Amino acid sequence: MKTETVTIRKYGNRRLYDTSSSRYVNLEDIAGLIRKGADVKVVDARSGEDLTRVVLTQIITEDVKGQPSGLPLELLKQIILASDHARQEFLAWYLRTTFETYHKVQESFQSRLTDVGSAAFAPLQRIGGMIASALAPQEGQPSGEVEQLRRRVAELEAELRSRPTPKPARKSPGKRPRAQ
């Protein structure tokens, strides 16, 4: 399922306008859209020129500002040196391949982590199943305790049936309490 492309217009005064939500946005807003999975396209408001790469590069630059991490200096220098088309294509291919490999490794790691978690819990699940089956009565066979209760109830019912029904107690006629 392909997501809808969000078009951002960039004006000469460096303002960015999201045409889908009809509001001005900043670089953080665009980064948020991308993180949510939106397909973002940035165009020059006057000429229609595609500025997506420039703006995304600017977002990356802003994100690493003031942080010791980020892209290694040697890689940044090589990007600057890659002025001819062939080197730019090679560098783009290299970065794309590196990121694809990184994502595959991450997915594989997550999958294996899930497998390890399942394997770690398997003995506990097995023991839980054994306990549950030991405590539950077998199909068609009541457990010993339930059977004892049934027998005892049957005995008590039989005992009640065998006893004669008591006659109601009689009051003695004629004796009334005296008035004082």
What does this structure look like?
The protein is about 55% helix and about 10% strand. The protein is built from five helices and four strands, in the order βββαβαααα. The chain has helices spanning about 25-35, 50-65, 75-80, 85-135, 145-160; strands at about 5-10, 15-20, 25, 40-45. It has a four-stranded mixed β-sheet with strand order 3-2-1-4. It is elongated. About 5% of the residues are buried. The mean pLDDT is about 80.
Q: Sheet bearing the most strands, described?
A: 4 strands, mixed
How much of the sequence lies in strands comes to 5-15%
Tell me the radius of gyration: 41 Å
What's the rounded overall pLDDT mean? 79
Structural class, judged by helices and strands?
Answer: alpha+beta
How helix-rich are the residues, as a percent range?
Answer: 55-70%
Q: Which stretches are low in confidence, meaning pLDDT under 50 for 5 or more residues running?
A: none
What is the total domain count? 2
**Shape type:** elongated
Q: Output the helix-strand order.
A: EEEHEHHHH
Number of strands: 4
Distance between the termini: 103 Å
| Strand order within the widest beta sheet | 3-2-1-4
Tally of helical runs: 5
